[in-house]
Specification:
single chain, alpha/beta, Rossmann fold, two-stranded parallel ribbon, 61% helix, globular
Length: 137
């Protein structure tokens, strides 16, 4: 089973370069797993594209975010409470110098064995921890 992080889900939701490859995982490797933080992180990325960068309209931002939430509603993405992974995530963050946000996905991936990410540093740490990493740039 694969844990998907916010960097890859934001790429998918916003149709950024490489989104088609993430889409393949969404279609073919379901269900994907993630921590509930992912909705907040991707929501923030959508907000940035709309409010700060003016790349999409508020209506488009809402449509994209609703589409992401729909993936959760129909169990394409299974969300778990981040609290279950906080202690291990902090240990990973302190040991490897990555944020606790990124470490939450790594800690969850330690349970499931694989991580789908678009974050090179996060991928590097996950590989050091002997996880199978799917890096989509």
């Amino acid at each position: 089973m694969i844990v998907v992080d916010a960097s890859s889900l934001a790429k998918y939701a916003l149709h950024e370069e490489g989104w088609e490859e993430v889409s393949r995982y969404v279609r073919e490797r379901r269900p994907l797993y993630s921590v509930d933080l992912v909705l907040k992180e991707v929501g923030n990325a959508v907000w940035k594209h709309c409010y700060l960068r003016k790349m999409i309209s508020p209506q488009e931002a809402l449509r994209l975010f609703k589409g992401l939430k729909r993936l959760v509603d129909v169990s394409v993405i299974i969300l778990e409470n981040e609290g279950a992974y906080l202690d291990e995530a902090l240990e990973i963050a302190l040991r490897h110098g990555v944020t606790i946000y990124d470490s939450l996905y790594i800690a969850q991936a330690k349970r499931y064995g694989e991580l789908l990410t678009s974050d090179e540093r996060q991928a590097e740490v996950a590989k050091q921890l002997k996880l199978k990493v799917h890096l989509v740039l």
